[in-house]
Amino acid sequence: MQTSISKLVNQKRRSLDLTIEKLAERASVSVSLISRIERGELENISLNKLQSIASALNLTLSDFFTDDSLTGIHTLELIAYLKSLPEEQRETVAESVLKILKL
Asked: Where in this chain does the record put each HTH cro/C1-type domain (predicted)?
């Protein structure tokens, strides 16, 4: 899990074109904390700090605890988009995407 959190923080930060310093500022945490997280050194991080980092990256705390195979930034973005739709519309979009993938 540490590796997936580290990878997700790094990938999302880069996709938002943020430096470690800018992310730390947005999340109100230290630069060294962000650096340690990206290196996989997550011992004793509080959920509050992790939540602040998630918010600064436009993620949810639960994104850090998703199945490792679903933690890519684009995968999470697609899942978040589908979750935001009403159920009927979500099923229609999912069906359409699956049809496109099977072409």
From this structure: 9-64
Region of residue 58 (left: phi > 0; alpha: psi -120 to 50; beta: else): left
Structure tokens at 51: 């939540």
63-94 per-position pLDDT tens digit: 888 766 666 778 888 888 888 999 889 889 98
Structure-token pair, residue 75: 């995968």
Measured distance CA(8)–CA(4) in Å, rounded: 6
Chain centroid to CA 46: 17
Rounded CA-CA distance 86/12 in Å is 26
Find all residues with CB under 8 Å of 54, minimum gap 6, and list them. 60, 61, 63, 64
Model confidence, pTM: 0.69
The pair of structure tokens assigned to 77 is 């973005």
